[in-house]
Amino acid sequence: MSGNSKADTRKKSVSIEILVGAATIVFLALIGLLAVLELGPPRIMIYTGASPLNTGLLGASDLYSETKGMYPNTIIITNWSMVRNIIAGCKNAVMITISPEIPYSNYEAEEIVRQLSQCRSLGFLVADESGNANPLLEAIGSRVRVEGTRILDLSTGLPYPTAVFNTSWGYGDRVTLDIASRLIITEGGGNDHEVLVSGVIPAAYIVNQTESRQISTQRIYLDVVIAMEERFGSVTVFTIGDGSIFLNQIMRSQYRDKYLELYEGVLRHLCMDQADCLVLMDASKYIGGDPVSLINRGVNPALLVTPEFLASAIARIIHPATWFPPLVSQADNTLRGLIAISNLAKILIISTSVLIISLVILSKTPARRVDTPIDARGTGSEELVNGKSIKDLGEKRLGRKDFLEVYRAIDEIIYSVTGTRLSEPGCGKRLAEMGVDRDLAEGFCKYMRRTALRAMLRRPYPPILRWNRAIERAIDMYYEVSVSIDMAKTIYKESV
Prior knowledge:
The chain is elongated and about 105 Å long. The two termini are 58 Å apart. Helices cover 48% and strands 16% of the residues. The chain has helices spanning 2-39, 61-70, 84-87, 106-116, 134-140, 248-251, 256-271, 291-296, 307-318, 320-340, 343-364, 381-386, 388-393, 400-418, 427-433, 438-455, 467-495, and strands at 46-47, 74-77, 92-98, 121-127, 144-146, 150-153, 162-166, 172-176, 183-185, 194-207, 220-232, 235-240, 278-282, 288-289. The protein folds into 3 domains: 1-40; 61-291, Rossmann fold (3-Layer(aba) Sandwich); 376-495, no CATH class. It is α/β, with parallel strands linked by helices. The protein is built from 17 helices and 14 strands.
């Protein structure tokens, strides 16, 4: 009776261990799923246009890298209300804006100028073909405005005219533009307001953005102004009617050096060759958001193919918040459909489902486990070496306590032969000295130690372990070790 009660107690303890482990895993998985659903997919901001944060062909990330290399104090500004502490007490600051997609409001422009007024001297590089930067130019006190027209080449009628640059610092070259606009001068300005023409197109057609580009009906304009420099007080402004010449597609082309030479010349001039010049690249006037919101706004998806966009799209697709709610909704609709059908159909569906589930469970249900302890102390070394124990155990479902019995039996045999225990750090080294391959010896001792700790519940992993295979592997490894020791002894005797 005592033996039966012990066996029953053993069965219950094993069952409780399995149930607690499975319940814990399921509970933690549900908590993790709910937390992931609550947080939603990761939001990776994607920027369009000539933003210094856009790494695509139409972005200006390469220009930012070049600027950072020239002047380490280069900062990307996404919110001008947060720059007060950055520019406090600066000697010389230069603001750069390239083809802003969103127009500056009068309030925003005045706030930017007010923030920058903390610096002793200011420089502005405005490269714009749309006119979105005109409120900023007005707030600065500039007399230059971007007309917002399109300049067409005289010979081809395409928006790629060639401009001749001749600047105050000695730069002179011919540069091909890309969708440029004419600059105009407004009235006003004091006697100390100096305006210099730095770049012109000798002859070209000028059309509005909505106007037909049939060159046969267009008027020819001479000396179309494309770049101007202004100086008044402690402010220097350099305006170019084309921001496209500073985009990544240009910086990554074979003509990169020609355009970069112009940009570097402007930047050095505005920074007055001061190494500590503070350069602020505006990134506040570009459309930004996650891929879905950008596409919903009408942004061409072809313009969003960047590493950041791909990473954001993949993260959103695989995130449970994307596919789990629709899956639950579909399951709910399916159940509603089943409820709406006739009672006979319900009975047939339920019966069929129960039958299929029962067959699957029965086909995968293992034989009933009889967790009877192995009398490993009565198992001799010869039986283990000859593999009789594996054959005897093959039809039984074994547990962790069975492994401990086998572990103790093998440990006693190893100790009697080598004088060392499996749990001792020098176990592998001692077996190697007895003629066992070093890798086999170290792997055998390490596996036996770790699995024994798992069997004694002193080690949490692996969380799922099939003890039949663990015992079989332990005996197989012991068999290889014992054969190696026997062969070494035989070789030793023959040599003597």
